[in-house]
């Protein structure tokens, strides 16, 4: 089958001789083995003016859940199926590395977990993953609530200032506010550093944003010009990037040195006894230095911290941004969420116990991650030839792929697949509220709770990869529970105190994407102090 994209009347990119030769070579090398895979031939113009994952969704509906996409000499396999995703992420995970993504991220994250090759990753994952244990997460609840409280206090002060002028509302870019909040949380949680970015600016904060900006630029720029010799000295934005990177790395080196120098036996004992609530510094860095000994390799540690700083910051900020965007368009769901908060918390502070009772808020976070997965695409490259299984619809018998195949696994497509979800594009946290009981365990509709008993949030195991916001298999996000709890707490604390409206129309909130899905010009909202709080 050789399907053609619906956009055949769109102008095709002009190809030169080199492109044609390269195309012939690509087809020759792969044609025999991937020959029967449906093919979407995109025009480069399809990609301008809208994020790539939108185009990949249209082609998914047209060509099916596994298709090949060729842009001039470049070819990718696009996967939008849970069974094929499970195969790549879990069953045959170690036959794939991060391919293009690693090439983009390595200059920033070095050999940190996300871009790391398989051998490096095996060693590091063993060191880092144990740091995210249940008691650490429990200790983090205080960090999440303290930092969120600081954000709410800032909003209250702004409202009080407005009140003195007779106004009752403030207008804010909530995306920027969430970004500051998430940065403060990741700084304290991962390396016990208070960026204080909710209330101030600093050269370090500017350097962090500069680096994130560059990571995003690189993930959307098709020619890796930064790899050209001298580019890092001659191109001004590359010079700035090198400066920002050095600034952050120097700060991380200082934090690591300090953690090593302040290593104390009493703290180590408390850590070993898992006496987390008594610890002054419960950060991941403390755990890694104390439990792994002072001889842990500094460069490795720095790459790990940098990776977590970037991986855990914009992702969570994006979840909060889109949760508010969706709730603001559904005032009845916003009220329902606030009613739950009033009945569970009243005016009290949130605790780990109350998170368990805030089911609707948790499902708002879950539904937001379904509609706006961060990142929307996972990237892989096959290290050896492989056979992809047939998809869940049974419309093909699977495809052979050669070594070196670049794959886009579209989580966005899986999460909005009309073959998996009713009304896939609608915001319906209620869809999970219909209960299902399996082997005596109660869970959410469409998910098998017996596969993941006790889970507070739906996951890829119980949904058999139909819902995979944190990936799956051995390279699944290490910070998933951290992020779920952080988002639930921040959202609950915001809705506990404020009513929120979008400032403009939903359509005016333009979507752009780099590593995460975010807005073009911010999420501008009007905030009012809630009048209808029903205290217990
Ligand atoms: C990996 C999503 C928060 C650290 C991943 C992956 C996804 C993801 C989808 C898998 C990438 C792949 O397979 O290619 C998210 C989302 C977050 C979030 C949606 C917030 C809502 C965090 C936080 C941390 C973190 C808070 C750390 C504190 C990591 C690391 C990896 C990772 C280290 C690499 C794991 C490995 O390869 O072994 N994340 N993440 N993430 N995430 Fe997260």
Automatic annotation (TrEMBL):
Pfam families: p450. The keyword Manganese does not apply. Its cofactor is heme. GO terms for molecular function: heme binding; iron ion binding; monooxygenase activity; oxidoreductase activity, acting on paired donors, with incorporation or reduction of molecular oxygen. Heme binds at residue 477. GO terms for cellular component: chloroplast. Gene3D superfamilies: Cytochrome P450. Keywords: Heme, Iron, Metal-binding, Monooxygenase, Oxidoreductase. Belongs to the cytochrome P450 family. PANTHER family: CYTOCHROME P450 97B3, CHLOROPLASTIC, CYTOCHROME P450 FAMILY 4. This is Cytochrome P450 97B2, chloroplastic-like.
